Amino acid sequence: MSVIGKVKRVGSSISGYLRRLGRSPTWTYLKRDRRAWVGIALIIIIVGMALFASFIAPHGINDSVGPTLAPPGQFLFGTDQQGRDVFSRVIYGSRDSLQVALLLLLVETSVGITLGLVAGFYGGWVDELVMRAVDVMLSFPGLVLAAAFVGFFGPGLRNLIIALSLTGWAPFARITRAQTLMAKEEVYVESARAIGEKDRTIIFRYILPNSASPLIVMATMTIPAAILLTASMSFLGLGVQPPSPAWGMMLFEAMPVFRAAWWTAVFPGIAIMVSVLGFNFLGDALRDAMDPRLRVRSGGGGG
Amino acid sequence: MVKKNSEIPKEHLIEIRGLKKYFETKVGIFAREKKWVHAVDDVNFYIRRGEVFGLVGESGCGKTTVGKLILGLIRPTAGDVYFDGHNLTEFDKEELRKLRRRMGIIYQHPQSSLNPRMTVYTTLSRPIDIYKIAKGEKKEELILKVLKEVGLEPRHLDRYPHEFSGGQQQRIAVGRVLVLNPDFVVLDEPTSALDVSVQAHVLNMLGELQSKFGFTYLLISHDLNVVAHMSNRIAVMYVGKMVELADKEELRKNALHPYTLSLLAAVPVADPKHKRKGVIVKGEIPSTINPPPGCRFHTRCPYAKMPTCKEKEPEFRDVDGGHYVACHFVKSRTHKWPHPKK
Amino acid sequence: MPEPILKIRGLKTYFFLDEGMVKAVDGVDLDIRKGEILGLVGETGSGKSVTALSIIRLIQSPPGKIVEGKVIFEGEDLLKKSREEMRKIRGAKISMIFQDPHTSLDPVFTIGSQIAEPIELHQVEEQHLMRAEDVPKKVVEMLKLVRTPDAEHRVGEYPHQFSGGMKQRAMIAMMISCNPSLLIADEPTTALDVTIQAQILDLMRDLRRKLNTSVLLITHNLGVVAEMCDRVAVMYAGNIVEQAEIKTLFKSPKHPYTKALLAAVPKVGSKKRKLETIPGMVPSLITPPPGCKFHPRCPYVMDICKKKFPQMIEIGKGNSVRCYLYNKGARGAA
């Protein structure tokens, strides 16, 4: 097929996908749920902050722009004990938090979903092995294990991600395995074998796409958890290091001066809350929209 | 590559010898006891190239399992399955997968047999891509051609299975088989889940495709009317065993096995004047976990004579010109049953 | 001719869904006489099951609603009765058996106790026709009536110990235990094997003979209809399009849909290579075609068919059709 033809086909399949998404019952119910819109709005604010930080923030994260001042006034959120603009730091902080959360999600889902798929599809000793690992990881308190890991191997972004994902992959694996076990029995999986599909293709093109719904919801809900976890880690001094404006770090640094300068802790705290709320709202709405039983019905009608 | 078995006649596309499939199952409290389901229990027959072979029977008779065994989707417990002279039981997983190029299957519930997340286009391309049948322009041409054969249109290509009616979904499934141009297709209750008028469309289409492309069909159904409409030869199965096999007309006019007779008597005919020939047989269909000893039909057979029927399993043999029966009393195809006492 | 025990006039049952208002039953008139087996035939979406559920008012509301009509049973309009009154009628005067015997019975109660339930409820408590201590005997009696082998012992078993055919027999036993005047059977044998189906149908004919129960038999299987029914009503897209005595319907079907349906059924022994098919698809029940709902698929379509909805007219003894082919001069206006 010519290049034009290829582009046309890709274009039409993308638009087809979007059209189907727009027609899908999930979107129809999602549209109606106010939580979804509130969530999306909050997320847009946070993501916007991260993307356009350099345009929005009036000062750098480490620039000492004045003495410690209370808000409002010259500085919208005031300045901290080192004279840095809290507003700018909160803005830039969104990058750190989102970055860590998304990286964490990436690692947890790739590991968890793959293991779950393999365990569910092949069964036998592979399944046993993976499931025992899941059981172990789910019984560990995630934060404690992460703290121990970082304590042993040292702080920093890479170690933080590894530490937190040590237990974080387990729920994904468990759900994926359950979904795979169900999907494996479906006729379309057998018919795929009947036309000669290889195992790998069956797992990734037949089973996975049809098991995605609960995983999408789970992923959406993992982001706020990740934000809180990294904030906690940073608060304990085990996360990213100063002068990083990660919100958790800002809370850590605000601890000694909190009584005198409340604004150094409150604003980063609000930022954390807003991002967590946003993803939680969207996640709740998404979960209800995907489950036919929990869907929001249109008002009125007979009966 | 596995060598062909030269003693299988070329005419026999499929030959089944001593085929058995037992499934393990656990019964009892806490699923402690292990029992065996005798799904297919020593079945022997062959399917000729280009014919429509009908396989009929009620729940638990094993007909669907036979279909899946022939396709290699399940491995036999014992016995041999020959496809075009090759013994499938000697193939490994990868060799079997490559052989699937020459086979197809249509399922009873079209919606569940299609991947809900694949468009019609993707569903039809998968077989083409797997076996690298065509690329680029030629691939597009093939897909469009197949669409036309099954009565669908190019605008359907970007749609998903749930956007279609049952009959259309079945057409998509047929298209997926057609794209490979296989030698052999298993039709597993292809119209049982469809409305009467839709069934007519699909059956006609399957018949036309067979005449046009020369497929060999294994038509599995519990509906004798459907099987009789399309098949050249019909085999009857009961509780894992094949009890009769004959040409369509021969079976209709001269069925010999008491079970076949009861089946023919039980099928409702769309004609109020039709009088039932034969008796409605009593009793339940036995379980395949503990099949009755001897002849499996003896518990319900109006002609069963003890102790022979209870103790000895009847042989499935050719009583005349290709008419096979498994009954102790049928010695030739001119056998006549007396009027049953019940 | 005896007065019908059930008279349905102008029944309309709609479902209010997000996609729109589904006119599942759109103006149905039907009579059922005492002791007769009336077949209600149609394909998916014809409205036959909804009609049955409307009679005994088991329509899920929301989203469904019986918006119009009368269902006169033994002189009284069932649609005007209270829920309590309907409860007394269901199982006692009008019973219904469903398609899937595996899901109709409660798996945690014995067969005996489930059959006993309607007897205890209606005959003992409400009508005082029987004493509580006589119920177990009656239960065994009912199981024997439906030809359950070894009834005395099987009374104490659970549904999972019964086969499909036996479960359906148990359902029938439960539903006729109080000797209802009307039994509604919705695809009672569709989920059963052929030889078992023959047994159940034979049983139903026998019971009708013994108890003189009227039966509304709903099915898409024309063979079952031919074997069982005295009269038949054919439904399409929410309306009855033809009613006839059984022999008349099969010998000379009038409505083009009936004709097409009969021609589409494969038969053992038929020499036809191709089955007759109906072009097009079942219409949307939300936006049905104007005029006659079958017109887009009808080989005999005329201008008037596209504009005005045809009324039912009688064209012979017990034979009525909803079609302009038989309505010269469009007598059936308004």
Provide a concise account of the structure shown.
The complex is a heterotrimer of chains A (303), B (342) and C (334). Chain B is of the alpha/beta class and 342 residues long. Chain B is built from eleven helices and twelve strands.
The helix fraction of chain A, in percent, is: over 70%
Strand order of the largest sheet of chain C: 6-7-8-3-9-10-12-11
State the major sheet of chain A: none
**How many DSSP helices of chain A?**
12
Number of β-strand runs of chain C: 12
Largest interface, chains and sizes: B-C, 40 and 46 residues
* Distinct helical segment count of chain C: 12
Strand percentage of chain A: under 5%
Shape of chain C: globular
If you average the pLDDT of chain C, what whole number results?
A: 89
Global geometry of chain A: globular
Helix/strand structural class of chain A: mainly alpha
Q: How would you characterize the largest beta sheet of chain C?
A: 8 strands, mixed
Q: Classify the helix fraction of chain C into a percent range.
A: 25-40%
- Give the termini separation of chain C: 28 Å
What percentage of the residues of chain C does DSSP assign to strands (E)? 15-25%
Count of extended strands of chain A: 0
List low-pLDDT spans of chain A: 298-303
Description of the molecule:
The complex is a heterotrimer of chains A (303), B (342) and C (334). Chain A has 12 helices and no strands. Chain A is globular and about 75 Å long. Chain A has 303 residues and is mainly alpha-helical. The longest helix of chain A has 37 residues, at 86-122. The N and C termini of chain A lie far apart (55 Å). Chain B has 342 residues and is of the alpha/beta class. Chain B has an 8-stranded mixed β-sheet, with helices on both faces. In chain B, α4 (120-130) runs parallel beside α6 and α6 (166-178) packs parallel to α7. The radius of gyration of chain B is 21 Å and the shape is globular. In chain C, the strands form 2 sheets. Chain C has an 8-stranded mixed β-sheet, with helices on both faces. Chain C has a 4-stranded antiparallel β-sheet with strand order 2-1-4-5. In chain C, β4 (64-73) and β5 (76-77) form a beta hairpin. Chain C is globular and about 65 Å long. Chains B and C meet through α7, α8 and α10 of B and α7, α8, α9, α10 and α11 of C.
